[in-house]
Amino acid sequence: MARTVRGARILITGAASGMGRLYAERAVLEGAKSVILWDVDKASLDEVATVLRQVAEKGTAVYTYAVDLAELGAIAQAAHRVRRHAGDPDIIINNAGIVRGALFWEHDNGDDTRKIMQVNALAPMYVTREFLPGMIADAYRAKRIVNIASAAGLLSNPRMSVYAASKWAMIGWSDSLRLELQREDHSNVKVTTIAPSYIDTGMFEGARGPLLTPIMKPDYVVDRVWDAMLAGRPMLMLPKSVGLAKALKGILPTRAWDAIAGPVFGVYSSMDDFVGRR
Question: pTM, whole model, 2 decimals?
Answer without folding.
Answer: 0.96
